[in-house]
Amino acid sequence: MEEGKQETEDIKENPTEEIQPSSSGGDPNPNPNPNPNPRSVKTKVPEVEIHLFRRGKGPIEIFKSSLGGWGQDQLEALEIIDKYGFKSIFAFNPSSGRGAPIRFHPRNGRSLLPYKDGSVIFIDGEPKDSLVKPITKILLSVTILALLMTFFLRETPEWMKTSNFLGGIFPPWVLACIVIVFTRLRKRTRDILKKFGW
């Protein structure tokens, strides 16, 4: 009790001094940091080596990819598809060719099947269809059909010569091409709009 009174009297006399805890207190570890040079522990991220082919040709690139997911054993498949512009990816064996498709979860883009850390994976990708190629095929086929009809018919039908559409005169094969191109573009833009959340 007398010790407590003596401490309060010391505080009143020297209010700016720091109060030191008494050694009889209960701090079992006087040094809060026993190791002056602490080391951080780093964990190795599991990864696989990927040999990437395009339609069986290549490899176009060899790279390491980290595995993700809860168990750190799923391949980031959608990331590979987006980066290289593929429509889909397949398991691949250079000697026997393309195997089963690599399925992935639509929400997180990770493979459904697990992979082991340090594995070497051969993947074959199917590129996305270009927009120009199908449109030129459609236009060329419609033009050839229209020309064949004009050559094999004795007289060119009136409906083939002109068509009154919205006040303008267009040959019907041009209208057919416009409709086909429009529907094709609408299908592509619908996919793009879904990708951006529209």
What's the structural blueprint in terms of helices and strands?
Blueprint: H1 2-13, E1 47-54, E2 57-66, E3 74-76, H2 77-84, E4 86-93, E5 97-101, E6 110-114, E7 120-127, H3 132-152, H4 158-161, E8 164-165, E9 168-169, H5 172-195
Parallel strand pairs: 1-7
Antiparallel strand pairs: 1-2, 3-6, 4-5, 4-7, 8-9
Helix pairs in contact: 3-5
Explain this structure to me?
This protein is an alpha+beta fold and 198 residues long. Helix content is 35%, strand content 26%. A five-stranded mixed beta sheet has the order 2-1-7-4-5. The protein has a two-stranded antiparallel sheet with strand order 3-6. Strands 8-9 form a two-stranded antiparallel ribbon. α3 runs antiparallel to α5. The longest helix is centred in the C-terminal third of the chain and has 24 residues. It is elongated and about 100 Å long.
Total strands:
9
What is the 3D form? Answer: elongated
Low-confidence stretches: none
**SSE succession:** HEEEHEEEEHHEEH
Which structural category fits the helices and strands? Answer: alpha+beta
Number of helices: 5
How much of the sequence is in beta strands?
A: 25-35%
**Measured distance between first and last alpha carbons:** 76 Å
Summarize the amount of helix as a percent range: 25-40%
- Biggest β-sheet: strands ordered side by side in the sheet: 2-1-7-4-5
Question: Can you give the mean pLDDT?
Answer: 75
Q: What does the largest sheet look like?
A: 5 strands, mixed
C-alpha-based Rg, rounded: 37 Å
